[in-house]
Every structure is written in structure tokens, then in C-alpha cells.
């Protein structure tokens, strides 16, 4: 998929909490949050903004799917998510999966232990925050805004650019 970029281009790094709402995972989603988050995704896609999901969020989301008690719902969610993953890998749509960089893995684990853990941020949160920082640095010359889509206020406070219409649920 070829993405168009504009001067007002935005990049969103998506946390597990937004995926849980988008997929309406039982026990982790509310109808009002789902509607707001679905609308944010729709707008971002219509504007050809980049949507990145760090690889650890993929794993964490899969763990939440596995915890769904209703077997039929669990199977449906798993199939929907597998389809999105396949499409993301083959076409970079609906999002770009940020790969796990082995060279930086130890560095991110050290940041987790020394910087983020004392603030009660998880290892997955560390990867989300660091991916947003990496993308901000990568596209610095284009002056793109980089935001973190999350319902976690602590993580949201660490996004590279403040999002004016943020939704924390």
C-alpha cells in the first residue's frame, strides 16, 4: 500500500489499550470508548496518517484475547486479529508493525528497569514510548507530529508531541 504524506502528516503509535477498544474485547472495552477510538482510527486512515503498533503490543493483545472466557468470541477475535496482522505485514495496512530490533532490545530492557519501571510503566509501555521517540527522530526533518494512542495517562504524558484531541477513556 502506498501512503500519501502531507505537510500536516501525523504518526500514531498504538498501545494495547486502544487495540482492546477497537476490537471490543470483553472486559477491556466499553461502548462509548469503542465509538470514540473507532472514529479516531477512521479519521487517521482517511487522512493517510501512519499507524504503528509495536511488536510487544501484538503479544500483549494476543494474551488478552486468550483470556476471553467465551470460546466463540475468543475464536472470532483471534481470527480478526490474525487477518489484521497478515494484512499489516503484507500491505502495511491497517497499521505498520514496528519490528523488534534485537540490537536495541537490551537497551530498551535497561530503560525499562532503570527509568520506566519506577514510574509503574510496563515493558510494553517502554517499547511504545521508545517507538514514538524513534519515529519522531526519524521524521524530524519533515516536522511530523508523533502521538501515542493510549488510555494510560502516565504513558500519554511521554508522547513526543501533545495531541490536542487526545482520548484517554
Description:
- By secondary structure, the chain is α/β, with parallel strands linked by helices.
- It has a single domain (10-156), classed as 3-Layer(aba) Sandwich (Rossmann fold), CATH 3.40.50.1010.
- It is built from 7 helices and 4 strands.
- The protein has helices at residues 16-22, 31-46, 55-66, 71-91, 102-116, 123-138, 153-156, and strands at 10-14, 50-54, 96-98, 145-149.
- Strands 3-2-1-4 form a 4-stranded parallel beta sheet.
- Helix 1 packs across helix 3 (55-66), helix 3 packs antiparallel against helix 6 (123-138) and helix 5 crosses helix 6 (123-138).
- The radius of gyration is 16 Å and the shape is globular.
Residue share in helices? 40-55%
Strand order of the largest sheet: 3-2-1-4
Q: First CA to last CA: what distance?
A: 31 Å
Write down the Rg: 16 Å
Instruction: Give a short account of the largest sheet.
Output: 4 strands, parallel
Morphology = globular
Low-confidence stretches: 1-6
Number of domains: 1
CATH architecture: 3-Layer(aba) Sandwich
Q: What is the CATH C level class, in words?
A: Alpha Beta
Order of helices and strands: EHHEHHEHHEH
CATH names the topology as Rossmann fold
Would you identify the CATH H-level superfamily? 5'-nuclease
Output mean pLDDT: 92
Number of strands: 4
Structural class: alpha/beta
**How large is the count of helical segments?**
7
What topology emerges from the helices and strands here?
Elements: E1 10-14, H1 16-22, H2 31-46, E2 50-54, H3 55-66, H4 71-91, E3 96-98, H5 102-116, H6 123-138, E4 145-149, H7 153-156
Parallel strand pairs: 1-2, 1-4, 2-3
Helix pairs in contact: 1-3, 3-6, 5-6
Amino acid at each position: 500500500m502506498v501512503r500519501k504524506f502531507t505537510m500536516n502528516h501525523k504518526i500514531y503509535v498504538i498501545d494495547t489499550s486502544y487495540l482492546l477498544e477497537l476490537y471490543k474485547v470483553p472486559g477491556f472495552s466499553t461502548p462509548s470508548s469503542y465509538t470514540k477510538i473507532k472514529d479516531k482510527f477512521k479519521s487517521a486512515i482517511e487522512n493517510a496518517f501512519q499507524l504503528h503498533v509495536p511488536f510487544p503490543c501484538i503479544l500483549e493483545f494476543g494474551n488478552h484475547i486468550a483470556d476471553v472466557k467465551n470460546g466463540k468470541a475468543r475464536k472470532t477475535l483471534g481470527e480478526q486479529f490474525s487477518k489484521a496482522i497478515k494484512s499489516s505485514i503484507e500491505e502495511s495496512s491497517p497499521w505498520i508493525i514496528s519490528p523488534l530490533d534485537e540490537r536495541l532490545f537490551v537497551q530498551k530492557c535497561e530503560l525499562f528497569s532503570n527509568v520506566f519501571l519506577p514510574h509503574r510503566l510496563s515493558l510494553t509501555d517502554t517499547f511504545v514510548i521508545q517507538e514514538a521517540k524513534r519515529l519522531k527522530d526519524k521524521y524530524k526533518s519533515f516536522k511530523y507530529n508523533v502521538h501515542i494512542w493510549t488510555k494510560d495517562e502516565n504513558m500519554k504524558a511521554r508522547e513526543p508531541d501533545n495531541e490536542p484531541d487526545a482520548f484517554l477513556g
